[in-house]
Design brief:
Elements lengths: L1 H25 L6 H30 L7 H25 L3 H10 L1 H18 L3 H7 L1 H7 L2 H16 L4 H28 L5
Helix pairs in contact: 1-2, 1-3, 2-3, 2-8, 2-9, 3-5, 4-5, 5-8, 6-7, 8-9
Membrane topology: Multi-pass membrane protein
Cofactor: heme b; FMN
Keywords: Cell membrane, Electron transport, Flavoprotein, FMN, Heme, Iron, Membrane, Metal-binding, Transmembrane, Transmembrane helix, Transport
Length: 199
C-alpha cells in the first residue's frame, strides 16, 4: 500500500506543474501568462506546504507510521513550486538584476515576506536527506521546525499582496494556525509526561 500511495502522491504533485507548462506552451493562461504562472505556483506551494505539515497529525490519527514518509517528498515539492514562483518574479519583474530585486525588497513588504519565507525553506530543502539528518542530529529537528515560521510568513506575503480580498489568505492562516496549535498541544503533553509526579 505504501509504494502505490507514494507514487500517486508524486504524480499528483507534479500535475499542476505539467498543466501550467502545457498552458504556457499552448497559450492557455489568459492575457497575462506571467501573472497567471506566478499566482498558480505560489498557491500550489502553500497548498502542498499545508499537506506537508498535515502528515504528522495524519500519522497519529490513522495509526500508520509510513504516512510520515510522504512528508519529505511533499516538502520538496512545496519548495519546488516556491522556487518557480520566485524565479518567475525575477524573470518578469526584476529582470534578474540584483539592484532591482533589492529595490523591490525595500519598497514592497509583501515581496520581502515572500523572499524571507523562501530563504527559510532553502536550508530545509538542502538538509532534507537522511544523511544530513544523521549529521545534524537534534539540530535537524530544531531547524526543520522553522517550516511553521516559513508557512506563516508565506501567508503574510499573500495577505499583504491581496490588499482588499483577504479571505483566501486568512483561510491559509487558519489552516496553518490549527496545524501549529496541534503541534504545540502535542509538545505540551509530551513535556508533562516527562515531568516527575507530585509527592
Amino acid at each position: 500500500m505504501e509504494r502505490p500511495v507514494r507514487a500517486s502522491v508524486f504524480v499528483l504533485c507534479a500535475l499542476p506543474f505539467a498543466w501550467l507548462l502545457y498552458g504556457a506552451v499552448y497559450g492557455g493562461l489568459g492575457p497575462d501568462p506571467g501573472e497567471a504562472l506566478m499566482h498558480s505556483t505560489g498557491e500550489w506551494s502553500l497548498r502542498i506546504l499545508a499537506m506537508t505539515l498535515l502528515m504528522s497529525p495524519l500519522r497519529v490519527w490513522t495509526g500508520k507510521p509510513w504516512v510520515i514518509k510522504l512528508r519529505r517528498m511533499l516538502g520538496l515539492y512545496a519548495f519546488f513550486y516556491a522556487t518557480i514562483h520566485f524565479t518567475l518574479f525575477l524573470q518578469f519583474y526584476t529582470g534578474w538584476a540584483g539592484a532591482a530585486l533589492l529595490q523591490e525588497l525595500v519598497e514592497r513588504p509583501y515581496v520581502s515576506a515572500g523572499f524571507a519565507a523562501w530563504c527559510i525553506m532553502l536550508p530545509l530543502a538542502i538538509t532534507s536527506t537522511r544523511g544530513m539528518r544523521r549529521r545534524l542530529g537534534q539540530r535537524w529537528i530544531k531547524l526543520h521546525r522553522q517550516i511553521y515560521v516559513a508557512a506563516i510568513i508565506a501567508c503574510i506575503h499573500l495577505l499583504w499582496q491581496a490588499r482588499s480580498d483577504i479571505g483566501e489568505a486568512l483561510a491559509y492562516l487558519l489552516v496553518f494556525g490549527l496545524l501549529l496549535a496541534w503541534r504545540f498541544r502535542r509538545a505540551l503533553k509530551a513535556n508533562s509526561r516527562l515531568k516527575p509526579g507530585k509527592v
